[in-house]
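Handout, section B. The chain below has 289 residues.
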Amino acid sequence: MQAAMHACLAIPEHRNIVALASAKFERPQWVVTPEESASSRQAPKMSGGARFRGAMSAPDPVDPQFALTPEIVLTGPLPLGPREAQQLGLLGVPHSIFVLPEVEPGHVAELREWALAVAKHCWGGVIQESGTILRPDPESLVDLRLYSPDPQPMSIVQEVVRSVLPRAQEYQDSDGTTALYTTLEYDGTIVIKRSRATRDLPPALATVDWRDYGPHVYEVSWIPPDPEELTQEMPSSLHMIARRRAAPMVARTMAMLQQKFEGTVLDTEDFMVQSEALQARAQGKSQGI
């Protein structure tokens, strides 16, 4: 199988590859849609020989193809059943496989970083050519950013989040701006900052109506008791326990800000976080669904 000869991205079937690609690339698009691929396997075509004029023959089948850029074209989706997915250590739900192409050296890192980011966001995996499966930790995506049209001073923000973070206090950040922080008893610190976005907005926002976001960025982040563990591939059990307790507070805080100031929420990988997913995070529910 082609999927066995190349590195592949595996994501739950219900995930939208166009939205996932739009988080990093400006104009992703289908080259051959799944529907066109299916039709190429079913529709007969006319035979070209004069002797057999009017005879029908099957067309050459075409695989679905999806272009991140003109230089990076994925093949897929190809189906992966729940049992097979579970055997690979993935969620026990139907998955879609996208075969990653061989690309020029200048695009290798770009493709790899995107595939790993998608796998993390979707609770999926990257199957390497060797057969090794990389499953980035999706629970490490704790911090959230709200792109809002409504700029408000931190005194107002403090009132908005008071029901979630009653002990939030103002402080002067290193750049001289006012921010908020709350120290959790055992689980680190939650910080809220506001800034104005530059012209280089995340590509995902290009897919949103301009009235549904703005340049004012409210960032809610978690600083663990030992910040160095954020960079470790295998953090300690104490770090993961603290993270599980802090993550819903981050999400609840963000939900309050979005409700008051409106806008679009992105995670640290620039993927959009829809309201249903934000509420699930706020309730401490797994996003591996």
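Note. DSSP finds eight helices and 15 strands in the chain. Compare this with the example in section A.
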